[in-house]
Structures are given as structure tokens and as C-alpha cells.
Amino acid sequence: MIDLQKDVKYIKGVGPSRVLLLNKLGIFTLKDLITYYPRTYEDRNKPKYICECEDGEEVLIEAIACNKMTSIRLKGKTMQKLIVRDETASATLTWFNQPYLRDKFSIGNKYKFFGKVSKKAGKITFNSPVYDNEEKNQNTGRIIPIYPLTYGLPQSTIRKIMEAGLKDVYGNLEESLPDYITKEYNLENINEATKHIHFPEEFKDFNIARNRLVFEELLSVQLALLQLKNNYMYEEKGIQFEKEVKISDVINTLPFKLTNAQRRVLEEIEQDMESDKTMNRLLQGDVGSGKTVVAMCAAYKAVKSGYQAAIMAPTAILATQHLENFRNILENLGIRCELLISGITKKKKEDILQRLENGEIDILIGTHAIIEENVVFKNLGLVVTDEQHRFGVKQRTKIAEKGENPDVLVMTATPIPRTLALILYGDLDISIIDELPPNRKKIETIAVGKQMTDRINNFIKQQVKEGRQAYIVCPLVEENEEMDLKSVEKLYQTYSTEVFSEYRVEYIHGKMKAKEKDEIMEKFKNKEIDILISTTVIEVGVDVPNANIMVIENSERFGLAQLHQLRGRVGRGEYQSYCILKCEGKSENTRKRMKVMVETNDGFIISEKDLELRGSGDFFGTMQHGLPEFKIANLFEDIEMLKMVQSVAMKILEEDPKLEQEKNQQLKNLIRDKFAKRIEI
Ligand code: ADP
Ligand code: MG
User: Fold this and answer.
1) To test ligand 1's pocket by mutation, which of 250, 259, 262, 289 has the most ligand atoms within 8 angstroms of CB?
2) Domain spans of the chain, in order of start
3) Among the CATH numbers 3.50.50.60, 3.40.630.10, 2.40.50.140, 3.40.50.300, which is that of 46-141?
4) For residues 412 and 393, what is the distance between their CA atoms, to the nearest angstrom?
5) Residue owning the nearest CA to atom 17 of ligand 1
6) Residue 386 CA: which ligand 1 atom is closest?
7) Which CATH entry fits the domain spanning 1-41+155-171: 3.90.190.20, 1.10.150.20, 1.20.58.480, 3.40.50.12780?
8) Is the CB of 311 under 6 A from ligand 1?
9) Mean per-residue pLDDT for 563-592?
10) Nearest C-alpha to atom 24 of ligand 1 is from which residue?
11) Which residue from 407, 302, 333, 316 is spatially nearest to 367, judged by alpha carbons?
12) Does any ligand 1 atom lie closer than 6 A to the CB of residue 290?
């Protein structure tokens, strides 16, 4: 038996420093290693003649070394240079700072080189090609996997480590899918699939291997989600809220007319609330589509039926804003709302907890603070979580446990294509607000390069002079908060002392204390700040109608869904609003992505494009959906497989709802392995 939980440090070629690098990639065990799949592959199988090489293509050549390698010093670097030739032409190979290469090549010997061709005036150069001796196939001469990597860990190294790891497991892996399934769906066995996904001999091998691994990954997700949904059905009955309590009583007091979409979702919610089934509903709606008022109506119904409601928001800023909105409307209807965030005084907190337990508070609005153990409700009947992707499934469950089967409404402004949502949120029913309130001005969006900086800055100044306010969002620097922080501070320095020195500039970032953040947001709301420089902390739900400019620096580094969220911070008032996407680099992909942003304001279209242009790994990674990350499946490419697998999963569970049959034991283990983390965290 092979121990897949074995620490990577026991794998051949992995010393202490490499362990750290592997850990950085999330590879801790042998299992992590062999399921660390290549990002792409390069076909280094078929050599080309040098005379056939085209500029920019990646090519394998077989050539003879013509001279001894020379070294040239260039601006503090040394460049190694080697001339090679085959029957048709010669080529120059260059490397930087790799003096040890001197001894690798002997004049007159044949080598294989693989790299990117640069062809200028008929002269062929390869920059830092990889190489092998004629008879070796370490780096060239086959289909080579390319892994997503971290600094300091070259492809050739991880490839060697992977080979060693695979050698350990090949032939010893236990089949993870039941026989009857691999047979019926013609799936490759786990040993071959694992080997071929890393080192396919032909691309055909890769397709067969990938097919099996994707099937397995999607099947385990589907089974887990469907089981969750079934569990709700087995649960004891939920609350039946009063039919006599009419949501229309709130609607009539609103200063605006609800959109048709808002009415429709409210009907769906009201129906759920009146039935004896526990509501588990996801409410999707673009930024600004008016989800808050929907939550308010649901809370009204709960309270007037004799229960309490909890509203959970991801940031103190948002929670405070919700409190204001709720009080504005509901206090007149005799409903008592309170705010619980970590920033409040001990005395105030004790008072709130006391009144909550006595039932003197009807609606408690707050942040994570609501989940804490000492928060006790008298009779919690409805839980609403806002901006769901910020909360894990566990948190959702934890707050729900404070009542007896309360109804749960989960709100998100992260639109997902409907087909996907139906599948991914298999454990929730879904309502969608697909319409914005009338009279919203379209946010003018433009994408600009560096050369426009002055004009943009002048435009901002002009708008500020007219009394408007602007957000400037900083580039994301990797997934590293400290670096992000630095970039905010740096930008703040330049902007506050140079470019916008005559204006009131402030900055805000995620690492500040909640109280500091609130103070700054409060000042911004009160127009005491003209220009707010920020990280993505302002991404979620903040409402400052007077702010009409959103500048996003290095917007090429953000996902489309995220850009759309950021853009949603403006366009909330009566003024024409602008979103300025500054970007560097002119890659085809960046160009396409910016085009999407400029052309549409529709979050659903944007999320679909995002998925298409980035792949689902990124998509879900960035959005922290609380869903398992997909290691190999790509929800855009694999949508057909996903549909097929969904029906397979349903068939399996229909016959064996709890996966108790002997033949389904492997499936049960699969789900347990994969989802232990998701459900528990
Ligand atoms: P989100 O869905 O992003 O949470 P909000 O609930 O914050 O959106 O609503 C955005 C703004 O639109 C708020 O100022 C809200 O009062 C307003 N609003 C909501 N519904 C309507 C409507 N039907 N007509 C006009 N304004 C509306
Ligand atoms: Mg909102």
C-alpha cells in the first residue's frame, strides 16, 4: 500500500529548501504532488530544420555545437553565447548569468534545443533554450508538462520531482471510482490516468487521462451537493411564517416602485417563508439591482410573524449602511433594529446582547461578530447573509444554528451564468434579479493606456472642482497583502503630494482597524474627502452617491467580475458616472477583456465572458465562492461533461441516497476526502 499522505520531503530530490517552495504551491503530501496538474504542455517531439524556423514560434532543433561557449559582460549581467548548426543553417543561442553552461557543450557534438525563435534579418537566435544530449529526453523530445510555478522553482526541477513521485505511486494507486462506473462510461484507470496527465506520450493519452480525472472531480462535487440538498429535505420541518403578514405593507411605504424582478423574487421568497419547508435560497442580482430592500421585506415578514431576523454583512461599513436603510423604513412600522460589530463598546455590546435574548430587538444587523457564541437570540426565524462569497458555508450554517431551522436567504452580487449556478449551488434554490431600477445612467467606461495619465488626472480635477468625488483603486500585487499595502501607500504619496496636492486625498486598505476604516468611509460619505485611494476593500456594497469616478490602476490584473463589482461603486446618484480602466500591456487577452468592460454593464454577460477568457480555476479562486476549487475541470470547457455527470450523480443517489451500498463505497470516500475541508472550515 502506498501512503499518499506521505510528506513531500521523503520524495527523491526534495531537500529542505525545495520543500518550502513546494509548500508555497500548496503541495505538502505525495497526493498533493501527483494531483498538481500541468497548466499546459509543449510538444517537443518533432525537430525542425533551422532554416524552417519562424519568428516567435517555439521549436525543437537538433544541432551541432560549432564553437566554445563565449561569455560577454553586459550591464552587470553576463551573457553566454553558443553558435550551433544543422544541415540547413546556423543559429545563435544565448543565455544570461549561467556560466556553468560553459562545460555542458563540446564542439562537434549534437544536442537538442528547445526554445522560442527570434528571427531578425534572416538571423536566427534562441534565447535561453532548454537542451538535452542527443540520447537524453529530460527536457526535450517529448510532450513536456508545464506547471504553474513559484519563483525559485524551475520547470525542470518540478518535472524531476514529479517523475520521482509518479514512480512511487504508479501501479499502486487504488481505484477511486467503482468498477461499474469506469466500465459504463469507459474511463481510464487511475494509475494510467495519473501517469498520462503528467507525461502523455501523445496528446491522445492526455485527452483520455483528462477525461477520466475531470469526470471524477465533477462527479464528487455533484454527489456532495445533491446530498446536501437531500439532507435539507430529511430535516425536520421549518417555520411557517404568517400568511396574514403582508410584505406589501412595507412596499407601500417605500419611496420608489419595485422593479418587476424585485416583485418576482419577493413572491418566491414569500412562498418559501409561508411553506413548512426550510428556505435555503440564493438571491443573485447585479450591483445596484436592489437586493437590500428585498431582504428588508423578508425580515419584515419574519418579525411580524413573531420571530427575529439576523442580517450578516462582510464589512462593518456595509453593516452600518444596512442599519441606516433598515431603520429608515422599518422603524416607522414599529420594528427595532440594532447593529453588532466588533468596533462597539463593551457596555453597548452587553446591552444589545441582553435585549436580543429578551426579544427586545427584532432585527440584528452585523458582521462576523453575530456568529460569536455569546450572541443568543430569543427566537431567530430568518437569516440573511449579504455578499455570500465572502462567507464560507460553515459560517452560514453556524448562524443558522442560532435558531431552530430558520429560513436562510443568501444574497450575492456575483452573477454566475444560470446554467452554472443551478449546478454549482445544487444545495440552494435560486432567485435572480435581472433588472436594474429605472433611470440609472449608464456608467461611461473607458480603457486607457499610460499615455493618457495627464488627461485623466485633469478630468478628475475638473469633476472634483464641480463637487464630485473619486475612487482610485490600486493594482493588486500578487496575493500578498503586505505588498498590496505598499502599493496603496506609494500611490497615496504620489497623488497626495504631487498630482492632487490641492485636494483632500485619503487612503484606505483592508489591514486597517475596522474603526479607522469606518471613520474614513464616514468622511468620504460626508464629502470631507475628495479622492479616496483604496485596495479592493471598497469592492463590496458601499454606497456614496456623490462619488462618480472610479479609476482602476493596472486593471489588467483584476478579473472581470471584480472590475464589474468595483465599477458598481459609482453610478449610484444623479450624476453621470465614469469608470476609467488604466491598463498596461497590450496582450490580446487584456484587450478583449477591456473591450467587454467597455461594451457592457450587464454582470451576467461579464461573468460569462470572464469564465471564457480566464478559465474557471481563476474565476472561482478569486471569488472565494466557498466552493471547492477545481483542480482539473474547467467549468467553461467542461460544461457538457458537467451536465452529463449531473445526471449520473442523480441516478446514483436515486438508487442509493446515502451511498450505503457496497458498490458505492469508493464514491463515499471520494466525497469525504474532498469535502471534509469545505464543510468543516
Ligand atoms: P444591491 O443589490 O447592490 O445591494 P442596493 O440594495 O444597495 O443594491 O440598491 C441600490 C440603490 O437602489 C439603493 O439606493 C436603493 O435604495 C435603490 N433602489 C432599490 N430598488 C429600487 C427601485 N425599485 N427603484 C429605485 N431605486 C431602487
Ligand atoms: Mg448590497
Assistant:
1) 289
2) 1-41+155-171, 46-141, 248-275+290-412, 444-600
3) 2.40.50.140
4) 14
5) 290
6) 4
7) 1.10.150.20
8) no
9) 88
10) 437
11) 316
12) yes
Q: Helix 603-614 and helix 616-623: axis angle, to 10°? A: 120
Which of 253, 254, 256, 328 has the most ligand 1 atoms within 8 A of CB, as the residue to mutate? 256
Q: Nearest bound ligand to CA 289?
A: 1
Q: What is the CATH number of domain 248-275+290-412?
A: 3.40.50.300
Do the bridges between strand 40-43 and strand 70-74 make them parallel or antiparallel, or are there none, so unpaired?
unpaired
For the residues 593-608, what does the mean pLDDT come to? 88
For ligand 1, say whether the CB of 436 is within 6 Å of any of its atoms: no
Of 26-35, 248-257, 471-480, which range is least confident?
471-480
- Asked whether the beta carbons of 630 and 617 are under 8 A apart, the reply is yes
The pLDDT tens digits for 154-189 are: 888 999 999 999 999 999 999 999 999 999 999 999
Q: What is the distance in A from the centroid of ligand 1 to the CA of 289? A: 6
Res 464 pLDDT > 90: yes
Cell readout for 491 is 500611490
* The one-letter amino acid at 66: C
- pLDDT score at 233: 53
Q: Is 437 in the pocket of ligand 1 (CB under 6 A)?
A: yes
* Ligand 1 pocket residue status of 292, Cβ below 6 Å: yes
Q: Which residue type sits at 42?
A: E
**Residue 291 CB–ligand 1 contact under 6 Å:** yes
Rounded to whole angstroms, the Cα distance separating 116 from 54 reads 9
CB of 251 shorter than 6 A to ligand 1:
no
| Residue with more model confidence, 114 or 587 | 114
Averaged pLDDT of the chain: 86
How much is the average pLDDT of 613-626? Answer: 50
For residue 541, which phi and psi values (nearest 5 degrees)? 50, 5
Residue ID of nearest Cα to ligand 1 atom 4: 291
pLDDT in tens, 343-398: 789 999 999 999 999 999 999 999 888 988 899 999 999 999 987 655 555 566 77
Given a cut of 50, whether residue 681 has pLDDT beyond it is no
Closest to 521 (Cα-Cα) out of 530, 531, 508, 504: 508
Nearest to 89 by CA among 59, 61, 127: 61
pLDDT band at 117 (very low <50, low <70, confident <90, very high): very high
H/E run at residue 281 = strand 280-285
Q: What is the mean pLDDT of residues 134-153?
A: 81
Q: Is pLDDT of 611 > 60?
A: yes
